[in-house]
Amino acid sequence: MRKRDAAPVPRSGDRPATGPASAQGGDHVRALLFQTPRNVSELDRWAIAFVVFIALAWGAGMVAGFQASLTILTVAGFLAAIFGLHKPLVGLLGIGMLCTMDAVSRVLLLTGGLLRWNTLNYWLILVIGLNLTFVLRLRDIQSRLALVFVLLLTLGLLLVDREDLETGVMSVLNVVIYFGILVYFAPGRRNPRVWYLQGIVSGTLAALGSFVYFLQKDGLPYVNPNAWSYFPLTAIFSLSLGYRFAPRGWRGQALSWVLAVANLGWVFLSGSRGSLLVALACMLFLLLTTRSVSQRILYVAVALGIALITIARFGDLNADAVHRISKLLDPQESFAARTSGRSDLALGAWYIFRDHPMGVGTGGFAQAWINMGYRQSLSGFAYGREMQAHSGWTKTLAENGVPGFLALLCFVGSFAVVGWKRKQRGMWPIGLLATSVYALAFMSTDFAGKGLWFFAAGATTLLNLRVLTVRERPGADGPGRTKGETVRAEEIRA
């Protein structure tokens, strides 16, 4: 098989960079590009069309209602994801939209039985089946550890009672879709611009959608704020993945920064303290990977300006968010009250683990919480009621014991380890961010949110350009490829 010559990653508009590797800045992007991508302008037109459509849909939602716009955009996202089987880069924009909207669509739109949670899961499993050869050839450490974790979760289904089996199956589905999202990210290894564009599309989707949501919130069905916060938070994930692929100059990064700050404001107004902590980690990443000091100062000023506007427009929501944060820091409150009972759930998970070191089975936490009975060290929060762990760490510890917890710990830590090993290629920041995001996120949420797995698939692709392989379709991304030809990624210096 003939090895293709690597070319530098383009860093501005449609004009690819040429010449030798640049030595300016140790944090320049190291990414895959076998050749100058065809029809880069076509990809830009697709992204512009997405953004315009999103703006029009949310604009119509000001009259027709948030749920009507959400329905239109969800249908559009699925159509783009399906079309992505033919045109993969468009598919990445579509799956980014679906993962971003998942936090609200699964509650406000995809209701009724298993479809409430699993419509997107089912589609991604179908995508895995259609691309099974690609999935089986994944050799990166993240994918291998994810596969081990999925197998342990599946084995854990054998330990639970029938009434807990549905919950356990959904836990497995929520993790296995990571491989389906990886299929969508694979073509982005040959066209770095799509990383930036998918961030802009998702960022616009959540920024405008959250504005419409908060305007109409009182007339909408209740959505748990901790779950809803992943609507703008997933957009911040997308912007973080594409930030360093922004066009040359401050304008490209400025647009990403403005969208990220706007979505940070919506995360804050949600009142979810766990999501806010994760969002702040992403914002720190964006700030530190901005090369120019003057740009950093400007972006911080923009952030303050957007914050003042948001506070003035949504003063009541701001007061509630401030109260929740103040309560967390108030030493006069009990620890259970400060954490809304999460500390009791974590301690209960520890007691369950001590009684069952190999776990009670995937999906079995709620019943084990009831069976645990009274413990003197607990506050009595939700005593005798079925409760979920609300934490990936404690859920895995109680349900899957030592093997599951170690597999999850290794998966989370592997991003930082791989990033450190490839720091000369500029991968250390994104690896450290991914590990930080999952370490923090799994303290306050489990595996249901698609945004976390979307970010995991994106970070995996960026970190493992040399070891990922993909089977090409004729003419998918360049001329001269034949069906069945396998290409291998090679890092290059920008």
Whole-angstrom Rg: 22 Å
Approximate helicity band = 55-70%
Number of strands: 2
User: Structural class, please?
Assistant: mainly alpha
Low-confidence segments, given as residue ranges, are 1-40, 467-494
Largest sheet: 2 strands, antiparallel
Quick check: average pLDDT?
Answer: 79
Q: How many distinct helices?
A: 20
Task: Tell me the count of domains.
Answer: 1
- Which sequence of SSEs, written as H and E, runs from N to C? HHHHHHHHHHHHHHHHHHHHEE
Strand order of the largest sheet: 1-2
State the shape: globular
Strand content: under 5%
Distance between the termini: 25 Å
How is this structure best described in words?
By secondary structure, the chain is mostly helical. It has one domain. Helices cover 65% and strands 1% of the residues. It is built from 20 helices and 2 strands. The chain has a two-stranded antiparallel ribbon with strand order 1-2. Helix 16 crosses helix 17.
How would you sum up this structure in a few lines?
The protein is built from 20 helices and two strands. With 494 residues, the protein is mainly alpha-helical. It has a two-stranded antiparallel ribbon with strand order 1-2.
